[in-house]
Amino acid sequence: MKSSHYRWIPLAALIVASASCDRGDDHSEAASEETGEAPTNRIDIPATVRSNLGITFAKVERRQVADTLRVPGSFELKPLATHEYRLLVPAQVRFEVDQLQAVEPGTLLFRFQSPQWLELQSRIDLARASYDQASLKSEALEARIEALTRADFKRADLESEATGLRTELARQQAELNAALATATNILNTYGGPEENALSPDDLLTSVDMDGRSVPRYQSIGWIDAKAIEPGIVESLAITDGSFVDETSLVLTTVDPSKIRFRALGLQSDLEKLEKAQSASIVPHQGNGGDLNDSLPAELTLGIDADPSQRTITLFADPLEKRPWARPGVSAFLEVVTSSTGGPVLAIPRSAVAKDGITHVFFRRDPMDPNKAIRVEADLGIDDGRWVEVKSGIGPNDEVVLEGVYELKLASSQSGTSQKGGHFHADGTYHEEH
Known about the structure:
Elements: H1 19-35, E1 42-44, H2 47-53, E2 57-59, E3 61-63, E4 66-77, E5 82-86, E6 91-95, E7 102-103, E8 108-113, H3 115-150, H4 156-190, H5 200-204, E9 206-209, E10 212-215, E11 223-226, E12 231-236, E13 243-244, E14 249-254, E15 259-266, H6 270-274, E16 278-282, E17 295-306, E18 311-318, E19 330-339, E20 344-348, E21 353-355, E22 358-364, E23 371-376, E24 378-382, E25 386-391, E26 398-400, H7 404-410, E27 412-413, E28 416-417, E29 421-423, E30 429-431
Parallel strand pairs: 1-29
Antiparallel strand pairs: 1-23, 2-26, 3-20, 4-15, 4-19, 5-14, 6-8, 6-13, 7-12, 8-11, 9-10, 12-14, 15-18, 16-17, 16-19, 17-18, 20-25, 21-22, 22-23, 24-25, 27-28, 29-30
Helix pairs in contact: 3-4
C-alpha cells in the first residue's frame, strides 16, 4: 500500500487550509486502511469547486481533423475600403456628420460655400446677358437682310456684319456652355449617386427663391456634399467652419466590411500552400468563445517574398461575416493540407495539458458528474484547435476545458499520476489516504 501512495501538489494560488479538513484526514485514512481500496485517478469537483475554479466542459465530437498549417496574422482594410472627400474649389466648410458616424450613399456629409462659386454664378450671368444681347442683334440684322432681299435689294456690308454677329453669337454660346458645364461638374461631384445627374439646361430652369422666380444656379449658395460610398466616418481632416484651399482633404470614410486577413507563411511551406485544400480564419480561443467558430476564406499568395526572413505574405478574403472580424483584430489563418479521410473522436486542443513528458486530459466521470478522471492522452492528428484522441474516451463523454491546468497541478508530480482526492469549496485540494 505504501508504494502506491503519492503526495498531491495543492494549487499554488489556492492553498487555504481548513480546520475541519484535519479531522477528515484521520477518518479518511482509517477508512482506506479498513477497506483496502486502491488509490484512483479520480478527483472530486463538486459544483462549488467548479464555480470557484471556473471549470467548464467540452463534449467529445466526431470531427474530420486535418493536417493544418496555422499562421498568426491580423485583419486589415482593403485598399478600396477607404474613400476620401476633397474640395474642387477653395471654400468654407461646415460638417453635417461626426466622426465614427455610419453613412449611406446620399447621406449629407458637409456643406461648403466658395468665392469661386459666386464668381462662377456671375460668369454665367454675364455669359447669358452677352449671349442674349448678341442673339437679339443677330435676329434684328437677319430680319433686315431678309426684308431687303424681298425688296430685291442686296447689301454686302449687312451680309458681312451678319457673319460677324453669327461668330460672336457662337462664341458667347460657347462661353455660356463652358460656365454651365463647370457649375454642373461641381454640383454633380458632390451629389449622391442616387440623384439624377444635373445637366447644364437644369441649371437654367426656374425655381422659386424668396417668392420670386430665378434660374436654379442663382438659388444655390451653400453646396451640399453627399456620401458616395457606404461606410463609417473615419476622420475629419479640418475644423468645422474653417476655410481651406482647393484639393484639401475634408473627411475620410471607410467601409469596415471590405477587409482581408494578412499573415506571413514560411517559404518552405510554399508547395503545401499552393496545393491547399481549403482555408479559414479562426479567432483566439478564450473568454468562452465558440470552439467551432471559423470564417471560411479564399487564400491568395502574395507576389513578393522576403528573402531575409524567408517568408511570403498570405492574403485571405473572408467569404462570410463575423462580429470579431474587424481591422486590427489578430487571429489565425488555418490552411488545410491533408485530412484524416473520415471523422474521428476529437477534443479541443486546449483541453490537453503537458505533464512532464506526457500529455493528459480530464474526462468527466460518466457515473458521477462531480468527479473528473485523469487520462494520459493517446493523441493523433492535431489541427491546432482539435486533436484526435485514439483511446480513453467515448463519443458521449465530456472533458474539462477551462480549469485543466489547475487539475493537472493538483494531480501530478514530475509527470506521475497521483491517487484520488477532492477539492474543498475554497479551492484547496485534499488527497485521499
